[in-house]
Amino acid sequence: MLKVITFIGLGSFLGGVARYGLSRAAVDLAGISSFWGTMAANIMGCFLIGLFYGIFERYNIMSEHWRLFLTVGFCGGFTTFSTFIHENYASITEGRFLQMALYASVSFLVGMLMVHVGHMLAR
């Protein structure tokens, strides 16, 4: 059990650091709100988790520990659902209803599409 927790924890650490890097890059390089960095992380994370699970379903590769490292750990640390919900909440409380609706809709729809694309690429 300790080995499983270690793999998940290391993956989560790396996923969280990667998410932070993506958000900072969105602000520093593109000059856009971290709001879009969060959405990019969620969409990219959906693609990655779809790709990983698709590969695991098709091929018998990697141990269960590495699978957990990539999916539960890395993708779990990389995607930002709690941040996503808080940003939507902040948009509502600040009266930015259209922004919230657009952000939530695009994140959900493109996220679902990216999970599908990840699965399809793995096949």
Description:
The protein is an all-alpha fold. The chain has one domain. It contains five helices and no strands. α1 runs parallel beside α3 and α2 runs parallel beside α5.
What descriptive keywords fit this protein?
single chain, 123 residues, mainly alpha, globular
Secondary-structure topology with pairs:
Elements: H1 2-28, H2 34-58, H3 64-78, H4 81-93, H5 97-122
Helix pairs in contact: 1-2, 1-3, 2-3, 2-4, 2-5, 4-5
Summarize the structure.
GO terms for molecular function: fluoride channel activity; metal ion binding. With 123 residues, the protein is an all-alpha fold.
Low-confidence stretches: none
Distance between the termini: 31 Å
The shape, in one word, is globular
**Total DSSP helices:** 5
Derived structural class: mainly alpha
Using only C-alpha atoms, the radius of gyration works out to 16 Å
Q: Please report the total strand number as a whole number.
A: 0
